[in-house]
């Protein structure tokens, strides 16, 4: 009975032997520039990083129904001003607050409804503002759970960081390979980004039956962004590793 074939080996580094030059330059060995050895190490490397969300959007809904139109408007306007003032006092810029109002006639009464969307970059301030409004306004305002997300700038920064980390890991791998053979790593000859992936985080569905029942930390975890990068690089092999570098 024939034995099963062994699984294929994964090559992560390849030492390319030197090729004998057809003719050496006349300046070689006489003070001229060094002759390239032609020896190379080919290495692949990867990295994976994550970044939590850098923004959160909170929606606040409030309304009033009165017999007089002015009374309905006034009731909502007072609460809107208090919400805006509370957010401004805690460092939220005016441009991060958006107010939408809707005024209608319901049977013999007037109904005024409003929604305030506030974008926070500081999650501690977000909690302080929401806790204050719940304490002061009570059931007259409905605050939705925060929606966490990433700005395009944050996603771009994560992709750059993971690419740089993959290149650094690849260089360290090449150094280790060269040291294993008593060689010294030279300059990079080629660095190629082969694959970059992005995906969002998620929590186990068994942790919660409803998205509305997620805790704040679970929501942040659910909105965390992940990125991975794989690169291929070719480095020059300079020659024997000197004793000083080996001791460092």
Task: Walk me through this protein's architecture.
- With 248 residues, the chain is an alpha+beta fold.
- The chain has 2 domains: 37-52 and 151-205 and 216-238, Translation Initiation Factor IF3 (2-Layer Sandwich), CATH 3.30.110.170; 55-149, Alpha-Beta Plaits.
- It has 5 helices and 9 strands.
- The strands form 2 sheets. Strands 3, 4, 5, 6 and 7 form a 5-stranded antiparallel sheet that branches. It has a 4-stranded antiparallel sheet with strand order 1-2-9-8.
- Helix 1 (69-89) runs antiparallel to helix 2.
- It is rod-shaped, with a radius of gyration of 31 Å.
- The two termini are 54 Å apart.
- The model is unreliable at 20-36 (pLDDT under 50).
């Amino acid at each position: 009975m024939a034995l099963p074939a062994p699984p294929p080996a994964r090559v992560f580094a390849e030492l390319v032997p030197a090729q004998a030059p057809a003719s050496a330059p006349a300046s070689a060995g006489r003070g001229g520039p060094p002759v390239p050895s032609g020896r190379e190490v080919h290495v692949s490397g990867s990295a994976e990083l994550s970044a939590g969300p850098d923004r959160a959007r909170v929606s606040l809904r409030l309304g009033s129904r009165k017999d007089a139109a002015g009374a309905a408007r006034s009731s909502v306007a007072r609460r809107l001003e208090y919400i805006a003032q509370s957010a401004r006092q805690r460092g939220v810029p005016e441009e991060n607050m958006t107010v939408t109002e809707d005024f209608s006639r319901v049977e013999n009464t007037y109904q005024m409804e409003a929604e305030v969307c506030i974008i926070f970059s500081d999650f501690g301030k977000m909690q302080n503002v929401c806790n204050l409004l719940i304490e002061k306004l009570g059931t007259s305002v409905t605050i939705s759970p925060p929606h966490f997300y990433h700005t395009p700038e944050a996603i771009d920064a994560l992709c750059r960081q993971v690419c740089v980390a993959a290149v650094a890991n690849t260089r360290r791998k090449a150094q280790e390979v060269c040291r294993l053979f008593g060689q010294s790593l030279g300059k990079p000859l080629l660095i190629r980004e082969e694959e970059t992936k992005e995906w969002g985080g998620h929590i186990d569905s068994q942790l919660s039956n409803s998205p509305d029942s997620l805790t704040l930390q679970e929501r942040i975890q659910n909105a965390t962004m992940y990125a991975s990068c794989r690169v291929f690089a070719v480095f020059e092999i300079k020659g024997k590793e000197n004793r000083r570098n080996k001791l460092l």
